[in-house]
Specification:
Layout lengths: L1 H55 L15 H29 L1
């Protein structure tokens, strides 16, 4: 009976270790995912800037030739989101000016 109790205690301790290790691994994964998403957002914003710069100069820009791996849909979505933020910012500015007047 004593050996069974030891085996059960050992199993319990191993289960706790595995659980703690799993929690640490999940935390590390979430940190890595957050870092990756932040980098992706920065890279996508940089790409939209570059595309706008080329467009203003009347040129085309091939993102994949410069190491960018975003789909056309992702690029278009980021460009549209930036345009909406710009329009919203202008609308807020106009609203504040009309209130002050």
């Amino acid at each position: 009976m004593d050996s069974q109790a030891k085996a059960l205690a050992t199993l319990g301790m191993q289960g706790q270790r595995l659980s703690r290790q799993f929690e640490k691994t999940v935390t590390q994964l979430r940190d890595l995912q957050t870092t990756r998403r932040e980098k992706e957002t920065r890279d996508l914003n940089e790409l939209v800037d570059i595309i706008q710069m080329y467009k203003a100069a009347g040129q085309t820009f091939n993102p994949s030739a410069h190491g960018f791996v975003f789909s056309k849909a992702q690029i278009d979505q980021a460009h549209q989101a930036r345009r909406r933020r710009c329009l919203a910012s202008k609308a807020i500015g106009y609203r504040h000016k009309s209130i002050a007047a």
